[in-house]
Amino acid sequence: MLDFPRWKTIGISIILLLGILFSIPSFLPEKTFEKLPSFAQTKVNLGLDLAGGSHLLLEADLADLQKTQLSNMEKTVRTAMRGERGADDDIAIGELSTAGGKISFLVRDQAQLDDARDRLFKETQGAGLTGQRDWNINIVDSTRIVMTPTSAGRTQAVAHAMDTARDIIDRRVNALGTREPTIIREGNDRVVVQVPGLQDPTALKELIGKTARLEFRMVDENADPNEALAGRVPVGSEIVPYAEGEGNGASFEVLRRQVMISGEQLINAQQSYEPQNNQPVVSIRFDSAGSSTFAKVTSQSVGKRFAMVLDGKVLSAPSINEPILGGSAQISGSFSVASANALAISLRSGALPVKMTVVEERTVTPELGADSIRKGAIAGIIATVTVLTLMFVVYGRFGIYANIALAFNVALIIAIMAAFNATLTLPGIAGFVLTIGAAVDANVLINERIREELKRGRKVFQAVELGYSEASRAIFDANVTNVIAASLMFWFGSGPIKGFAVVLTIGIITSVFTAVTVTRMFVAHWLRTKRPTTINI
Amino acid sequence: MRLLKLVPDDTNIDFLKWRKVASAMSIILVVISIALVAVRGLNLGVDFVGGQSVRVEFTQEMPPIDDIREKVGDIGLGEATIQQFGSDKAISIRTALPDGDKAAAEQAGQQLVAGIKKAFPTAKTGSVETVSGKVSEELLRTGAISLALAMLGISIYIWVRFEWQFGVGALGRLFHEVALTFGFFAVTQLQFDLNSVAALLTIVGYSLNDTIVVYDRIRENLKKYRKMEIIPLLNLSINETLSRTVMTSVAMLLALGTLLIFGPDVIFGFTAAILLGVFVGTYSSILMSTPILVWLKVGPGSFVPRTSAGNEGAERVAGKSDDGAVV
After folding, report:
1. Do B209 and A478 touch (CB under 8 A)?
2. CATH class of the structural domain A62-154
3. Taking a C-beta distance cutoff of 8 angstroms, is the pair B195, B248 a contact?
4. Which residues of chain A does CATH 3.30.1360.200 include?
5. So what's the pLDDT on residue B86?
6. Which residue ranges does UniProt annotate as crossing the membrane (chain B) (predicted)?
7. Which of A108, A418, B47, B73 is buried most, with the most CB atoms less than 10 Å from its CB?
8. Nearest-5° angle of CA A371, CA A377, CA A380?
C-alpha cells in the first residue's frame, strides 16, 4: 500500500493533467475555441437531439434497381446484336422479353447463336470473388438465349448502386450549403443523412428524393393520341405524362421506349436565362458520346420531336429545327430561378441509380436542444454537488479523496470524448449523471471494506490495504457486466442511444481508474507522510 | 468530525426469514406486470409502431386535450394519440402514417406540422419524428434481441466467474427486474420507445452491481466459514455488505432523482425507468438473488476444489491479481 512508486505517481499525474487540459476546449465559447492551436481544437460534438438538426434514413427500392438493371441489359443486348457500325454483322433477334426478371430473346438464324452468345459474354463480367459472372447466359431450345442475373451479380449491383447513391446524396446535400452534414451507408440498402442545424428538412428531402432521372427520348409521331389513350399503344412506345404545368394543354406524349441519351451522359447543368424573354432555363451539356448520339439523332430527325423526360414526366417535347452538333441544349419550362437552380443541382450531381425513400425522419429544433442542454447541465451540477456532499458526510477524508477522483473522472470523460470526437446526446447526459452516481460505488465498496477491516481489529495500513484489494474483485466483476450491457446498446442503438452507450463505456473505464487508482495514490501519500494510527472513516 | 452512518454497525437482520414472503410478493408482482402488459399494453412510441410524432410546446395557456385531439383529427391523418411530457405546456402528438403510398407517407410529417401550426399559431413544434412500419419492426426486433442477449451474456459471465447457481440467480433476478419495468411502463402508460430499451439495458447492467457485491461476499464467506449453515451464512453476507448497498443506492437515487426533477422532460420516462430499476434492484439483490441460492442448494461445497487441492489458495491469489489488473 505504501510503496506507491514514483513513476506511477508521475504517470497518473500526467494522465490527469492531460484529462483536464483536453476537457477545457469543450467548455469554451465558439470564438475562443477557434483561436486555439489546431491540436487543441478537440471538443465534444453535440448530437442532433442537443444541437438541433435533421436525421433522415433513406432506403433504396431494390425492386426498382433490378428493373433498371434489366432494362440496361436489354439496351446492351440490342446494341451488341447490332454489331460494329458499318460492318455487315448484325444478328437478327426477336421476341425480346424482360418478363420474370430475365432477358429472353429469339435468334432468328440458328447459325449465329454461338456468335450471339460470345458477344454477350463480352458484355457481362465477373462478379464477386468466386469467379461467378453477373449474368448467366443459357441457350434454350437451340433458338433462344435466356439471361438471368446471378446472385453475385445482384449483390454487386446493389453495392455499386448504394455507393453511387451515397456519393450523389453527399454532393446534393453539400450543394445545400449546410455545415458538416454526415452521410453514411448503413446495412445493405440504406443511407443515413444527418444535417446539424437544419430545421425544416422539406427542401433536403425534396433534393434527396429526386431521382432526377433525365432521359431524352423520341416522340412516336406515328401514334394516334386517342388510340393510345384507349390502350392501343404501338409496340415499343408508351404513354408518358407531362410534368405539372407543362405541355401547353396536352397532358401526355406517346414516346418511344428506347432511351436516346440518359442522364449519365450529362456533364454539366446550370441555371441560366433564355436570351429572348429572360426566362430562367437550365442549360445542359453532354459528354462526347452523348454529344455524338445527340448530333446523330438530331441530324436524322429534323422536323420530328424529341422529349426531355425527368423522373418519368415530360418536361418539354420540342421539335428539332436543325441538327444540334455542339452537345449543348437548354431545358425550358415554367421555371423560377430557384426551381431551375434546384433542377440544375440535381442534374449536375447525377442521377440516383436507384429510387430512395425516407423511412425514418427525426428533426429537433435548436431551441429544444438548447433547453435540453441547459436542464441537463443544471441537473448534472446539482446531482454532482449532492453526491459530493453525501460522500464527504459519510466518509470524511476518504470521501474528499473520492470526490477529487470524481472531479477528475468528469474531466477525463469529457477529454476522452473530445479526443475521439465522440458525440454527446441527450441520453448521453443522463449517462453522465448516472456515471456520477455509479462512480462513487467503487469508493463506497473500498471505504466500507476498510471500515469493516478496522472493526475486525486490523491495523490502519493493513485495513486500507485489504480494503483496496478485497473490494477490487467485486468492482471488476460489476464493471464487466456494465460493459456487456453498454456494448449491446452500442450495437443495437441508433444515434442518441449509441451516444449513451459511448458515455457509459468511457465512464466505466475512467471511473475504475479514478476511483481505484487515483484515490489509492492519495491515500498512500497521506498514510506515508502522516502515518496515522487511527483513521476516521 | 463525526461521520454519518446510514446503516448502524453490526446489523444482524434475518433477511432470509422473509424469503418466502418476498418471493411470493415478487412472483405476484411479476405476474401482475405481465398481465398488465398483456391487458393494458404498452404505450409504444413511433419507434416501435411506426407513424409520426410531433412535440408541441405551447407558449401560452394550453388548450384542452380534447380540443387539440379534434383539431389534429381534422388534418386528416386519422386518430391522434396525445401525450403530456413532464412540463405542463409540452405535448407529443402522434398519428399513424398513411398506408401503402410511400410518397404520401413522406409528406405526412410536413402535413401534420403545417396543420398544427395552422390550428395553433402560437404553438412551437420542437421535434418531428417519422418512422416507417418496416423500420419500426426492425427496431423492435433488435431491441428485443439485444435485451435478451444482455441478460444472457451477463448471466453467463456470472456463471463463469462464480458457480452455475449464481448465474441462474442473476438471470432470475434480471428477469424479475425487466418484468417489473415493463409493468411500470404499462401502469404509467409512459411512452415506450428506443430510450426505454436503453433504460432497460442500463438497469440490466447496473442493477447487477449489487448482486455481484453480495455474491462476491458469499463466495468469500463460503470459503472462510466452511462449517456454517447456508442460511446464517447468506444472512451474514447480506448484513456485512448492507451499508455499502444502502450507501450506493442512496447516491444513485440522489443523482437520478435530481435528473428526474431538474433534467430535460424529453427523457423523463427514461430517467424514471432507471430510477425504478435502481430501487427495485436494491430490494431484489437482498431478497431475490440470495434466496435463489438456497433453493439451488449452494452450500459449503460450492467453492471447494473439485479438481485439485489448493484451488482455494489459487482463488485468493487470483482475487488479488484482479486488483493488480485494475490498477
Report:
1. yes
2. alpha beta
3. no
4. 210-362
5. 59
6. 21-39, 144-162, 174-192, 198-218, 242-262, 268-296
7. B47
8. 140
Q: Does domain B51-131 have CATH number 3.30.70.3220?
A: yes
Q: What's the CATH superfamily of B15-40+135-314?
A: Multidrug efflux transporter AcrB transmembrane domain (1.20.1640.10)
Q: Do A482 and B322 touch (CB under 8 A)?
A: no
pLDDT per position as a tens digit, A41-64: 788 888 888 888 888 898 888 888
Please list the residue range(s) of chain A that carry CATH number 1.20.1640.10: 6-51+366-530
Question: Does the predicted interface ipTM exceed a cut of 0.95?
Answer: no
HSE (CB half, 13 Å, CA atoms) of A190?
12
DSSP assignment of A132-200 equals -BSEEEEEETTTEEEEEE-HHHHHHHHHHHHHHHHHHHHHHHHHTT-SS-EEEEETTTEEEEEEET---
Would you state the torsion angle of the CA atoms of residues A404, A407, A409, A411, taken in this order, to the nearest 10 degrees?
-140
Q: Does A473 touch chain B (CB under 8 A)?
A: yes
Q: How far apart are CA A518 and CA A403, in angstroms?
A: 11
CA A315 to chain CA centroid, nearest Å: 31
Share of chain A above pLDDT 70, in %: 92
Interface of A with B in 148-207 (CB under 8 A): 202, 205
| Torsion from C-alpha of A431, A436, A438, A444, nearest 10 degrees | 180
Residues of B in contact with A378 (CB under 8 A): 262-263
Distance from the Cα of B153 to chain A's closest Cα (Å) equals: 7
pLDDT tens digits, A219-246: 988 888 787 788 788 888 888 888 776 6
DSSP code of A536? -
Q: No. of H helices and E strands in chain A? A: 16, 19
Domain spanning A6-51+366-530: which CATH class is it, in words?
A: mainly alpha
- Average confidence (pLDDT) over B85-90: 69
Question: Does residue A394 sit at the B interface (CB-CB below 8 Å)?
Answer: yes
